[in-house]
Design brief:
It is built from seven helices and six strands; from the N terminus they run ααβββααααβββα. It is mainly α.
Amino acid sequence: MSTYLWINLLSLSIPLLLSFEPRFSFYRKAGAVLTAIIPVALFFIIWDILFTQMGVWGFNPLHLQGIYFWHLPLEEVLFFVTIPYASLFTYEVVNYHFPADYLRKAATPIGYTLSALLLVVGLLTIGRWYTSVTFLLTGAYILFNLRVLKSRYLGQFFFAYALILVPFLVVNGILTGSAIPQEVVYYDNAENLGIRIFTIPIEDAVYGMLLILMNVNIFEGMLKRQGQPFPRYASS
């Protein structure tokens, strides 16, 4: 089994097993989870295909099964299922254990500040494809949450994402060569800022924020339609 496939399976395994914990019963939200994951995965797979063909990033065949869909390794396609599932699980665990939404009042200033920073950097780096596209899309999407969706759960998302960054650093660190002889995913540094968190391009953290926020938006929308709007759990 390939290194990348193992990373996918290990990322999914614990959240999937804990989904059946009786008090939490995350498995009951499977419909909302799948509805969130599928369209977002399609969007990112198309983006991934384009950037792979442009040489913005690529994949080391030594760590792959050798099965490809739309010019992407099987493992990369699975990434957009396993990581969002684990992230939505973590987000809902945060809702369950921290229902007070500690960042509720700070969410708007955090959102506007982050959006402005990302948009400015994105505009200043036009020509560096990974940086400019990722920062501009994420900055605009946070602004969309603030101005159009008026997401009540944005503070909880920021809190959850801060926690998600811990396993993110582990998983992406392995993928980019922190703990293995050769990286699984490699990047053309001419297309990014060249700033790394250990071996991880800083753009990956922004890319991950966009991926997970898009999933959370659809997840929350589906739960609201099912009569489970945010906040779902009583605050003590």
